[in-house]
Amino acid sequence: MSESENLASAKEGYEAFGRGDAEGAMKDISDDIEWTVPGNSAISGTHRGKEELGAHWAQLAEKNPRIEVQHWLADGDLVVALTHVTLDGGEYDSADVLTYRDGQLVKFQSAGDTALSEQIFGSK
User: 17 FRET partner, CA 20 to 30 A, in 68, 84, 108, 122?
Assistant: First the structure.
């Protein structure tokens, strides 16, 4: 897929997630997705596959997340979303790196405030 198609897919996924539409958000996600969240919080680690990702999203949903994308960057198979995240009253900025292959999101890496995630979700 083209860079513009990858960017459009990412935007659609974030919009669907924001509406609480998990099925729509997972539409272009590979069955063997590798979703990595840094830190030592209860939600940190690498979640593999849609089932693990769904469980991860369920944990996030408990804290009423709001993710506002402030900037989009795209370069070939990579899309970067610079976001402002609000979770259970806490706020932080994050950079999400999405890797696409053949129109499917195959890898997601987030870089945000790991200390706040530990405070909100608890430590492992």
Answer: 122
- Give the domain range for residue 115: 3-119
User: Is position 124 within any domain?
Assistant: no
Tell me how far apart the alpha carbons of residues 117 and 96 are, in angstroms, rounded to a whole number.
Answer: 15
For 14-40, how does the pLDDT look when each residue is reduced to its tens digit (9 = 90+)? 999 999 999 999 999 999 999 999 999
Provide the β-strand partners of residue 69: 83
Q: DSSP assignment, residue 13?
A: H
Sign of the dihedral defined by the CA atoms of residues 107, 15, 95, 66, in that order: negative
Does a structural domain hold residue 17?
yes
**Are the C-beta atoms of 110 and 93 separated by less than 8 Å?**
no
What CA–CA distance (Å, rounded) separates 56 from 16? 16
